[in-house]
Amino acid sequence: MELSDEELKRYGRHLILPEIGKAGQLKLKKARVLLVGAGGLGSPLAIYLSATGVGTIGLADFDQVDFSNLHRQVIHYTDDVGKPKVQSAKEKMARINPEIEVKTHPTAINASNALSIIKNYDIVIDGTDNFPARYLINDACIFLNKPNIFGAVFRFEGQCSVFGLQSGPCYRCFFQEPPPPGEVPSCAEAGVLGILPGIIGLLQANEAIKLICGIGEPLKGRLLLFDALKTQFREVKIKKDPACAVCGNNPTITKLIDYPHACSDQQTIASITVDELKKTLKQNRGNFILVDVREPKEWDISRIKGAVLKPLSTLEHNYQDIPKDKQVYVHCQMGERSLKAIQFLKTKGYNNCVCVEGGMNAWEKKA
């Protein structure tokens, strides 16, 4: 494999770096990197790894572009709304660098397909936004001996590290078990500063380039924390845990596990789709109440006409006027808080609550 005349021109500023040079650029061209997630973190990763000349980039994402993505998922444009994210991203990557190959995996990574997808790549970069996916990716990378470049964002804070390197820790060495479903709010529930995924995603891209070229010092055994409000970085040391359930001396986890997502609790709680709710509201029979358990700031941005605001954070103090003799439809932004609200109301004798699947996100998509 050699660099074409076009590539020699394109990567000229790399080639004059002694640490990279032609040998390093050829390593980048031969590299196969999988991006799990084509959203906030995946966008800067896809843009810069394409421009850098990583020869084969895989994109794994099952979602479609939504208006709520656009303030941070910069590889997607307004006219991409409704497109599969992997398709939208691939189109931009081809325009950035036609010399690379982009492989798409329009599916959710799960226990049944993770190994077959990941095995074809040299490095995996975790750009997901939920704990079940993070543990699944970590475990699959350990089983296949692949580096796992981790990134996460929440409100104004971000994290980055590299797991699965020789003698280094894995994600479970630090975070042994995922939190209970719904305990930690998602970015859709809690918000995220638009530029934050760009900062963390580029740190992940930097780690990938260093690993491929064999330069610098990777974030092995170090969790890098970034505070956007203070513009401050700090590090937390992570040691390899000999008792780790997946990478320790006597592992107890030997196969992939699909941990439940928060909304999987809907299997035991009655639910209604937004289409069904729209029909119910249109009939307006008056034998139900629609309760919104989001916060006032979210309520001010958008609301469903006729809903009653009962924030989950204060529900235990003001639930008493919710009727027990009517059907109670409960919704939030995505479905996680409404499940918690219904679980709380059940302890107070309410057996008439129904969760609105997907919350305001689903409602606005159907608007």
Primary descriptors:
globular, Rossmann fold, 8-stranded mixed beta sheet, 2 domains, 5-stranded parallel beta sheet, alpha/beta, single chain, 367 residues, Oxidized Rhodanese, domain 1
Provide an overview of this structure.
The protein is of the alpha/beta class and 367 residues long. The strands form two sheets. Strands 3-2-1-4-5-6-7-8 form an eight-stranded mixed beta sheet, sandwiched between helices. Strands 9-13-12-10-11 form a five-stranded parallel beta sheet. The protein folds into two domains: 31-260, NAD(P)-binding Rossmann-like Domain (Rossmann fold), CATH 3.40.50; 264-365, Oxidized Rhodanese, domain 1. Strand 5 and strand 6 form a beta hairpin. The protein has 15 helices and 13 strands.
Overall SS class: alpha/beta
Please work out how many helical segments DSSP would assign: 15
What is the count of β-strands?
13
Instruction: Assign the CATH superfamily of the largest domain.
Output: NAD(P)-binding Rossmann-like Domain
General form: globular
Total count of domains: 2
- Order of strands, main sheet, comes to 3-2-1-4-5-6-7-8
Radius of gyration: 23 Å
Q: What low-confidence regions span 5 or more consecutive residues with pLDDT below 50?
A: 262-267
**Order of helix and strand elements from N to C terminus:** HHHEHEHEHEHEEHHHEEEHEHEHEHEH
User: From the coordinates shown, what is the CATH architecture of the largest domain?
Assistant: 3-Layer(aba) Sandwich
What is the arithmetic mean of pLDDT? 92
State the distance separating the first and last CA atoms: 52 Å
